[in-house]
Amino acid sequence: MPNFDNKDKRSLVTAVIEAWPYTISEIENAVYSASNVAEQVLIVAPEGLCPYEPKDLADLPADVLRVPFWGNFATMRNEVLTRISTPWAFLLFGNESFVTEDRTRLLEALDPDNPEVFRVVVATGLRGQILAEPVRLVPRDPNIRFTGRIWPQLQGSLMEYGYAVRPIDAHVFRLEDRASTFLATQRLRRALEEAAQVEARHWPHHLRLAHLYWALGRHQDMRGHLHRVPPHLPPVVRRMGSGLEMMARLDEVHYQGAREAALRVLEDHPNWADAQVIRGRAAMGLGHYDEALQAFLAAQACDEPLVTYLDPGYASYQARLHYGQALFMAGDKRRALASLLALIQEVPGYRPAWQQVLASLRGVPPEEIFGTMATVVAPSKIRHFFGLLAQPTADESPMKQWLFAHQFN
To answer: Model confidence over 205-231: pLDDT tens digits?
Structure first.
């Protein structure tokens, strides 16, 4: 790899600035501050929510990306990350600005040969009151994704994909105090409802509101808006409405209804991975383990597009996790362990798989657990995973302690 000075290191970073619900003046401050550490700046304007068009922001030294918005910022952010070509993305909200004096510290932390995940300090007010130290600088890696029914949260289990997460003494200044998630969700709901009132016949507004009400657990309101979405629309739109209905039935513990809805979808679209996963989850709830296993295997054979109602990995590592869980529930512990350990060997940072294995071996001495794991998973991967755990669970703690006592010396 070539050597980089700090000026060159700007080429390693794309700043991603989310435009809603901020003013053009606020966004302008964010763009110019971010350009101190990022050679490329991308303003993300969610369609159907943010009023700005590219022409409104044309005077800024940034590209404007209009991204479809269906009520979920996590899915939107994941799509944006697929559009980035630099090694890192620097995530900012439109009312935040990077503190220029910290430029050198941030750029010096970047090592192209050792990509890491970084936290920065977010502060506000005249005295720089610290609000939080969130992860804001993330490597471009398909394993690093965001989850959440409305607001994005970094998918915690994926932080153990070999990345160190460390703080940088670099500050982001926010122009207002942190609003609670509840207040932000209220603001989002009002914005979508106002748009639906202005354009009552514009079906995308109702689909966005349906997603929001599903995320809030207000299924009757969700269904009311879904009924206002015309039935004769492109498959991707029908898929979204069907997915919300199936997920609502799972939330309501109406497994039979979710299963029947998934089977109806699969009659016309047998390669929809999300419907296969929902069918499998419903079948597990009903105790139909053979059908669940079949569904999870079918999902893994399909492509996995971004959908707003399921977390990333739902047709890959999550489907394999569900497959192992279904085997446990069916009483086939040997095959379940073998399946989950094979998953860990391939995806060594997938914490839910480790936790499922440990739960199934609860009460077994750590040395025996290590011996069982090491038949499939490389011992170095076992040590590395447990070494990264900052807050181990009750199942993880004995294993970590034993490894430190016997393996890390």
So the answer is: 999 999 999 999 999 999 999 999 998
Average pLDDT for residues 237-252, to the nearest whole number? 94
Q: Please, are residues 317 and 353 in contact by the beta-carbon 8 Å criterion?
A: yes
pTM confidence score: 0.90
d(CA 387, CA 143): 19
Same domain as 279, residue 246: yes
Nearest one of 236, 243, 233, 72 to 150, comparing CA atoms: 72
Torsion of CA 234, 240, 245, 248, to 10 degrees: 180
Tokens 């003013």 sit on residue: 23
Q: How many domains does the chain have?
A: 4
- Same domain as 170, residue 67: yes
| Domain around 287 | 231-329
123 with 159, same domain: the answer is: yes
What the block records as the tokens of 120 is 């920065």
Task: Give the per-residue pLDDT at 151.
Answer: 94
- The CATH number that applies at residue 88 is 3.90.550.10
**Contact 148/72 with Cβ under 8 angstroms?**
yes
